[in-house]
Design a protein that fits this description.
The chain has one domain (36-153): Beta Barrel (Lipocalin), CATH 2.40.128.540. The protein has helices at residues 2-21, 36-41, and strands spanning 45-52, 55-56, 70-73, 78-82, 94-101, 106-109, 120-126, 130-138, 145-153. A hairpin with a 4-residue loop joins strand 3 (70-73) and strand 4. It is built from 2 helices and 9 strands.
């Protein structure tokens, strides 16, 4: 008789353990968002593509000395441009300082990256893998500036 009285509570405990142990797991929390400073300084950037007034100019021979450059942004607001095998004349290599402006919608450099351009870029997008910048650039023989968008990648 004692065995029958213990059988029901044991079965009930096993049933409770099975049903409560098989529930759905809570989803993993989303990883914290990285700041723009963390994104831009996480590793060096290399040229991926460029457009001028919406036309792809990535393979333009005039860009040959720029496409193999490596740009590094440091968290202390300094940076460096390393020339690749094709050296620009005048060179764009060297140290620079940088900062975000206008609520992190612009990027200001202490140097000009492209002849005919300026040291201020509009940030089109900044992700963990891509940096897309634009600015108006005067490309000879034209004397009128046209919008140039450049995409860099890690």
């Amino acid at each position: 008789m004692l065995k029958r009285r213990l059988l029901f509570p044991v079965i009930a405990l096993v049933a409770v353990a099975v049903f409560t142990g098989c529930g759905k797991d809570d989803p993993d929390p989303a990883p914290p968002q990285r700041t723009n400073t963390e994104k831009i300084t996480s590793s060096s950037w290399r040229f991926q593509s460029a457009t001028a007034a919406g036309t792809d100019i990535s393979s333009n021979p005039q860009l040959a000395c720029f496409v193999d450059n490596v740009i590094t942004f440091n968290s202390n607001l300094t940076g460096n441009i390393s020339e690749g095998a094709n050296v620009c004349v005048p060179t764009t290599a060297g140290a620079f300082t940088w900062s975000f402006g206008a609520g992190e919608t612009t990027l200001q450099l202490s140097t000009v990256l492209f002849p005919g351009g300026s040291s201020t870029f509009t940030i089109v997008s900044l992700t963990d893998v891509n940096l897309v910048l634009s600015q108006n650039v005067v490309i000879p023989p034209s004397s009128s500036p046209i919008p140039v968008t450049v995409t860099f990648q890690h």
